[in-house]
Amino acid sequence: MTVEWGTPAGRAELAVLAVHGRDQDPAFMRATARRLGPAPVRFFAPEADGNTWYPLSFLEPIERNQPALDRSLRVVDACLDRLAQDGFAPGRVVLWGFSQGACLLAHSVLTRPRPVAGLVLFTGGYIGSAPLPPPDGGVLHGVPAVVRSIEDDPWVPRHRVEETAELLRRAGAEVDLRIDPGTEHVITDEACATATKLLTTAAAHASGGPGRRW
């Protein structure tokens, strides 16, 4: 099931694929979206079976999270294909995830990259115990990416967030990384404000407006 909200599809400059975390659902992403400022975007939020995209920690070897991980990556692919059919080509789609959803999207972008309009990763990183090579081909060149986390988050270690940001940079993305002090698994007001800036700038770019993408 996919939940939609925001600007009507016919008037939206961008689509945002909003992917929830473990033990959450699209309602969490919709509530969080209210913390973002206004932007001409339509949100599309898929729901994971049992409210989890894969069973174990994202730091476990990839095979331990199979076959659920591959199934969830196919959900992301199917959502992007559906958005393209609805008129939102990859260059008009921003990927936004929190926690397990951010991990799923980070892994998707780094292992099967598409030329998206932007990337917002709140407290997540690529999946698996082994390092990932950066994607080649320049698909992510110039893609704005907001990466945010908390210093001592109980589930997502700082080093994996930093490693993910570095992989995105090496793949050509324009990464804005910030890790705030704290011990809670939360999304800060600053993270929401910066994500809003990305959305409004990407929407202006998609509509042919002036200025940089980010």
UniProtKB/TrEMBL annotation:
Q: Which Pfam families match?
A: Abhydrolase_2 (PF02230)
Keywords per UniProt: Hydrolase
Give the taxonomic lineage as stored in the record: Bacteria, Bacillati, Actinomycetota, Actinomycetes, Pseudonocardiales
The UniProt entry, under InterPro entries, shows: AB_hydrolase_fold (IPR029058), LYPA1-2/EST-like (IPR050565), PLipase/COase/thioEstase (IPR003140)
Q: Where is the Phospholipase/carboxylesterase/thioesterase domain?
A: 52-199
Tree of life domain? Bacteria
Q: Which organism's genome codes for this protein?
A: Amycolatopsis camponoti
What is the protein's given name?
A: Phospholipase/carboxylesterase/thioesterase domain-containing protein
Please state which protein family the record places this protein in: Belongs to the AB hydrolase superfamily. AB hydrolase 2 family.
Q: Name one GO molecular function term.
A: hydrolase activity
